[in-house]
Amino acid sequence: MARFTIPRDIYFGRGSLENLKDIKGKRAIVVVGGSAMQKFGFLDKTVSYLKEAGLEVETFEGVEPDPSVETVKKGAEQMQKFQPDWIVSIGGGSPIDAAKAMWAFYEYPDTKFEDLIIPFNFPELRQKAKFIAIPSTSGTATEVTAFSVITDYEKGIKYPLADFNITPDIAIVDPDIADTMPKTLTAFTGMDALTHAHEAFVSLFSSPFTDPVALQAIKTVFTDLPAAYEGDKDAREALHYAQCLAGIAFSNALLGIVHSLAHKTGAAFSTGHVPHGEANAIYLPYVIKYNAKDARAKTRYAEISKFIGGDGDDEDSLLAQLINKIEYLNTIFEIPKTLKAFGVKEDEFKEKVSAIAINAVADACTGSNPRPIDAANMEKLLNAIYYGTEVDF
Ligand SMILES: NC(=O)c1ccc[n+]([C@@H]2O[C@H](COP(=O)([O-])OP(=O)(O)OC[C@H]3O[C@@H](n4cnc5c(N)ncnc54)[C@H](O)[C@@H]3O)[C@@H](O)[C@H]2O)c1
Ligand SMILES: [Fe+2]
């Protein structure tokens, strides 16, 4: 028996932010990140549409990229004072994810973070508020997913929280809001979406409900991401919807070890954090090679390759064509091929690799990966990713 859960309403199209004018309720808190949404006027629009709908509005501003447990607790405290019946979050994955976790602490102030990191262990939400998510980046798809990624900076670990309780009630997928993304962010978040769709399609929990949206998302990213990167508005619109489709797929089919690795390397090195989408883009070709040693996974990757126009029927050839296409995207976006080229110092890598491998195996995304992996192989994979060596294990 399986489950497929998505928001009740997904509003999309340029200008669809206006749907906020029709929200019914008393009080809304708007959770937002650094400054982009203020600068481009989308925070003001969000607040004024909600006021037009007759709601009292407060804002929680300044959620940092890769939000911390502390920020989540601060936001939840403000919610406890204000008692909103709508939580509205606009921005990238970071503020929306933070708002999702705030929601749990708002409704259940005695909850412990340790309880929430256990997959599918959330208390029953919607006792006090419902949730609207409005993405400003085209990648994480947190507006439709059951996930929230929160970082424990003391431990240097990103925790993916997972529960269908935090799948938003309403998603507003308005491409106008993503148009302002700079080039690099467009590339990184687009590669995040590409990774979501690949991992969902080969996941042990892929299904007839998730496969079509995963394939469509992959095709659109390959077709439109290069033009979106150059600023083409139609391509950016297509990408904004494609990343949402990828989210519908992975929220229900789950992910794999590209994400396990990205979560556990993201905040691990002193050379600065590895942006989530960039990490995924670097790791994806290596993980495909590792996973393709499993017969079912290999066939699934070949299916993807065929769907996006790959030649012939030979699985090895289709696999190589797919990896080439991913590496080609990485080249045009100037994404390095290895963690060494990214700038992680060799001494630090060697010192930390065993612990990172153990943490990555324990990540919530590992269980749905199509080929099992233990700490020894995870360490080999990390070494291959660091030095750019062959994945022959
Ligand atoms: N919940 C999920 O399902 C899920 C899935 C994948 C990743 N994540 C998490 O999401 C986070 C990354 O989110 P993200 O990639 O969306 O980036 P982000 O939210 O961290 O934002 C990155 C930067 O981009 C700026 N920005 C955002 N939108 C902009 C716009 N339209 N124009 C100009 N600047 C803009 C922000 O101000 C910020 O400085 C990570 O913590 C990652 O682990 C969550
Ligand atoms: Fe991701």
What is the element layout, followed by pairings?
Elements: E1 9-12, E2 27-32, H1 36-39, H2 42-52, E3 56-60, H3 69-82, E4 86-91, H4 93-107, H5 113-116, E5 130-135, E6 147-152, E7 157-162, E8 170-173, H6 175-178, H7 183-202, H8 211-229, H9 233-253, H10 257-265, H11 276-291, H12 295-307, H13 315-332, H14 339-342, H15 346-362, H16 375-387
The protein binds nicotinamide-adenine-dinucleotide and fe (ii) ion (FE2).
Provide a descriptive summary of the structure in words:
The chain is an alpha/beta fold. It folds into two domains: 9-178, Rossmann fold (3-Layer(aba) Sandwich); 183-387, Dehydroquinate synthase-like, alpha domain, CATH 1.20.1090. It is 51% helix and 11% strand. The chain contains 16 helices and eight strands. The protein has helices at residues 36-39, 42-52, 69-82, 93-107, 113-116, 175-178, 183-202, 211-229, 233-253, 257-265, 276-291, 295-307, 315-332, 339-342, 346-362, 375-387; strands at residues 9-12, 27-32, 56-60, 86-91, 130-135, 147-152, 157-162, 170-173. The protein has a six-stranded parallel beta sheet, sandwiched between helices. Strands 6-7 form a two-stranded antiparallel sheet. The two termini are 34 Å apart. The mean pLDDT is 96. Fe (ii) ion (FE2) is lined by residues 140, 192, 196, 259, 276, 280. Residues 33-34, 36, 65-66, 91-94, 97, 136-137, 139-140, 142, 145, 147-149, 158, 177-178, 180-181, 185, 189, 192, 276-277 line the site of nicotinamide-adenine-dinucleotide.
